[in-house]
Amino acid sequence: VTCRLARSRHGSSPTNLSLFDGEGKASRVLELGPRGGSFLEPVAIEVPHFANVRDNNRQLVVLRSSDGETWKEHKWPCSDEQFLKQHPTQDLESAEKLAKRRVFRVITSDFPRYFALVTRPTESSRGVGEDGGEIYSEVLQQAKAKFPQGSLTKKIVVSLQILPITAETCRRAVGLKAKASSILTIEPRRRKFHKPITLTIPLPDGSDMKDYLSSTEDSTLRLLCSISG
């Protein structure tokens, strides 16, 4: 069994790992062997990383690939708590203790060719069907997405991400010319709904609605949107 950091080939990356906006590598890509090997019980790989996930604004996810070109999110065979219960005699640290040392435990029942540890804005997900529903952000409770009944004809998994923008970040970017709220992302992208959905986004820090709205058409409040970021 081998587990090593993937080596560059002729000065280029050994894999074609495409990331969405807001995502980034948390460590170098892992190369595993034997490729496609399966195990009778789940095994764990502890990976050191350099991501900052302590403020709950970001989370770590594991991507896997059999060829370095096509990637998908890794499905865990069991939770970290279940894995620790299955191996009580092993000297294994809890996920919380590992996080303090910036180490992440990956649990798998088989080896792809590559594992990639990726950091992204914290994502809140749930299945939404014909009856509709609401999704609340785990980062900002005021941020939510509401799907009315009939907006979807079949049940799909919908995700909500919030990238907080602090007043200090905004000031450094544009000075005192403008203020910006947190950035809200809804997945899947380019999805068409049969009825309008409602997205709720908190106003910028230290702002009041009356600072932006007026009784005339001179409102300074603007809503910007983007498909690609």
What report would you give on this structure?
By secondary structure, the chain is mainly β. It folds into 2 domains: about 1-120, Sandwich (Chondroitinase Ac, Chain A, domain 3), CATH 2.60.220.30; about 125-210, Chondroitinase Ac, Chain A, domain 3, CATH 2.60.220. The protein contains 3 helices and 14 strands. A hairpin with a 6-residue loop joins strand 5 and strand 6 (about 70-75). It starts with a strand and ends in a 29-residue tail after the last strand. The mean pLDDT is about 85.
Give the gist of this structure.
The chain has 229 residues and is mainly beta. The chain has helices at residues 80-86, 95-100, 167-174, and strands at 2-5, 24-25, 30-33, 38-48, 58-65, 72-73, 103-110, 114-121, 123-128, 133-136, 144-147, 156-163, 183-187, 198-200. The protein folds into 2 domains: 2-121, Chondroitinase Ac, Chain A, domain 3 (Sandwich), CATH 2.60.220; 123-208, Chondroitinase Ac, Chain A, domain 3.
Order of helices and strands: EEEEEEHHEEEEEEHEE
Beta-strand share of residues = 25-35%
Could you name the CATH topology of the largest domain?
Chondroitinase Ac, Chain A, domain 3
User: How many strand elements?
Assistant: 14
Shape: globular
The tally of helices reads: 3
Going by CATH, the architecture of the largest domain would be: Sandwich
The CATH first-level class of the largest domain comes to Mainly Beta
CA-atom Rg in angstroms: 21 Å
pLDDT averaged over residues: 87
Helix content: under 10%
Separation of the first and last Cα atoms: 40 Å
- Largest sheet, strands/sense/barrel: 6 strands, antiparallel
Low-confidence stretches: none
Number of domains: 2
Structural class: mainly beta
Oligomer: single chain
